[in-house]
Structure formats: structure tokens, C-alpha cells
Amino acid sequence: MVANKKTMATTSQFLKSVSILSPLTDEQRETLSTALTETTYEDGDYVVSMGEPADALYLIKSGEVVVHKKAKGEEGANDKDLMRMKMGEFFGESALQSDSVGQTRQANVVAVGKVTALRLTREDFTVLLGDLRELIKHNFNNKVLSGMDMFKAMNSTEKEKFIESLSEVRHRPAPRARAARATRAARAARAARAAQPLRS
User: Fold this and answer.
1) Residue 127 has pLDDT above 60, yes or no
2) pLDDT in tens, 167-191
3) More confident position, 73 or 153
4) Among 90, 112, 130, which residue terminates a domain?
5) Distance, CA of 112 to CA of 15 (rounded, Å)
6) Domain boundary among 130, 151, 173
7) CA 176 distance to own-chain centroid
């Protein structure tokens, strides 16, 4: 586990660069940084193998990895390189989403020289912060509502209760309103055609 404060701050910055985690607050990323496991790999070591459970996010702290997979339908074929990733890059971020349970790795990730990687499992993420989608939705609602005067007057407990009470509702105009809009659009189109000069 990542322990000291300086390392945690650096790790928290790494987490900020991960697109799927960018909506999290600094405090939430600091919490996650305590759950990261650091592992060093030697040249040629497999960080992950194709077919393994996709249950963790990996951040490359130092070094370089190559991502490759076997060419389809070719028995004994060489691995096909898909991409290379270096320090500060990451892979496996979709593993943090609750609907990715049961999915497997679609490629191998292999160390090119010495590599240090940070690993964050879906289980650790969920224990610390809950479901990723719900967390992002909560943070978004909090950010939007922060600009409202009424919301600014609330204390943190009241804000949390208010956000938790929100529910998403999809609105579709009533059939009569849609018909009225269509009629107005048709009249406007006829008026526009009537206003055009006649061509001889």
C-alpha cells in the first residue's frame, strides 16, 4: 500500500490524470491513494495477461509497457503489438465500473525494461467510495448546486441530504404541446415560402 504523505500526494496527482477519475474531488482521490498497491516488474514480465479477470486499474509510475495480443485465427502466430505506454499513463480504468464484473482482459500488457506500476482494485474502490457512477453523479449534482444561493446557505449535512433526495426525471412534452409546436413550425414554413419572390 502507498503510505507516506509525499507519495500519497504524487499518487493523488496520478489519479487526477485518469479520465474516469477526474470528476472525483481531491479528497476522494487522496482516499483512493491509500488503497494503491505498488509492484515492480522486470523486462518481459506480464503485468496482466489476456483472459484474466479485469478487476483493477493500473497506473504506470515508471518505465514502459507494450500492449499486445495474438492475431485472430492464427495458431502459433506471433503477438501483435497494439500500443506502448509510459510513465503517467494507465490502463484498465473500465474495471472500476460495477457493470464490468465478470469481464476479462482483452490483451496482454508486458514490461519493457524495469516497470513500476500502481494497482487499484474495483473491490477497494467500492469499499472506500462506493459505486463509481453514483459517486460521479453525486459530485456533478454537488458542483451544479454549489452555484445556487439557496444551496450556499446550507451546512454540509443539509447539502448531503438534499443531494441524496434528488431523483432523475426525464421530461417529454405532452402530445398536445408537441402538436402545437408542429403546427407553428408548419405555419412558419408556409409564411417563409409565401414571402419568397416568385421566379419567372
Assistant:
1) yes
2) 666 766 566 666 777 778 778 777 7
3) 153
4) 130
5) 23
6) 130
7) 40
